[in-house]
Write a structure and sequence with these properties.
The chain is mainly alpha-helical. 68% of the residues lie in helices and 3% in strands. Helix 1 packs across helix 7 and helix 2 runs antiparallel to helix 5.
């Protein structure tokens, strides 16, 4: 049985230091993920989804304890609603994971509007992205839907090849060779 008390930040904690540490951990994890081959990342995501689905009953039981503890502690109804899990919410977690990623690389091209973008050199932006994913359910849901739609565009290899070909043609049109002495 999963039993874990709700976690809160100690009132005496150095919140800026804690958030900076979280941002550094996220940056370190991003480096590892950047070097991880896509098939391995896909395999890990599929395993996470399978684990969530397999443990749904156990997760719901543990969550019921957390919800009861939150209510007993005087948590607001809005907080309790965000804390409470249902089978549908667990399935949503298994089916889609919202994305936050660097805006400094080519990732914005890949993700389009299906991710929260941040500058990886600015810890407060990383923290803001993490907090948005953690606290803003509407944003998470939009990102999951947009992410699935974006991923479906890349599921068809022929379509992806056509899109890349179009980009290459546009780039080459701008690089037409110029003959010496000819202006145009």
């Amino acid at each position: 049985m999963m039993t874990a008390p709700l976690k809160a930040v100690d009132g005496d904690a150095d919140l800026p230091a804690l958030m900076t540490r979280l941002a550094q951990d996220a940056r370190d994890a991003a480096r590892v993920l950047a070097l991880t081959p896509t098939p391995r990342k896909d395999q890990a995501l599929a395993a996470m989804a399978a684990a969530l689905r397999a443990a749904t009953n156990e997760i719901l039981a543990a969550n019921a304890e957390d919800v009861a503890e939150a209510r007993a502690g005087g948590a607001s109804p809005a907080f309790v609603d965000r804390l409470a899990l249902t089978p549908a919410r667990i399935e949503a977690m298994a089916a889609g994971i919202p994305v936050a990623c660097s805006r400094v690389t080519a990732l914005p091209e890949v993700t389009a509007d299906a991710a929260i973008l941040f500058d990886p050199r600015v810890p407060t932006q990383i923290c803001a992205a993490i907090l948005q994913l953690s606290c803003d359910e509407a944003s998470r849901e939009r990102l999951i839907v947009d992410g699935r739609a974006r991923a479906s565009r890349f599921a068809d290899g022929d379509e992806m090849a056509r899109e890349y070909w179009h980009v290459f043609e546009e780039a080459m049109a701008g690089l037409a060779p110029r003959r010496p002495g000819v202006t145009g």
